[in-house]
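Need tokens for this chain, all 165 residues.
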Amino acid sequence: MAHLVLLLAVAICAARATGEITPAEGAAPADIEYINPPSLLNATELGYTQVVTAANVKKTVWISGQTSQDTGGNVVGTTLEEQADTTTANVKKALEAVGATVDNIVHIQVFIANYNPDTDIPTVAKVTKAFEGSNGTFPSAELIGVQSLFSRELLIEINAVAVLP
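Here are the structure tokens for all 165 residues:
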């Protein structure tokens, strides 16, 4: 086990030295590292990061799946793009409720009802890029196509994990 930890530490130091690991700079509130290993697709252009680590964290925040609903439970918007805007705004409101911002997000999951990769990718890219941190970094992300969400009117749901120092 000690050998594995030592090897991992050496690999991280080497990756930092070669620029393969970019430490979060500026506004990142915890020790968060955004890593796009050269052995994987550089996902930054797509609006996410392959690996995110967080250290010196005092609080982890799990934000339940947010949808395009107002405070009365009414669905806002009828298209995926309209609902994506409201859903993204609702995630940001949930962050604000705990004193966090998009800079604190380390992971998001995006669920799309009746997902069609031929038509939905531009909207999904817009959603993931809405969570770009102030230092130009993105959380890790998952896109999951589903048959339906809890209401047939809803087309998108996003949950998130954030960390606070």
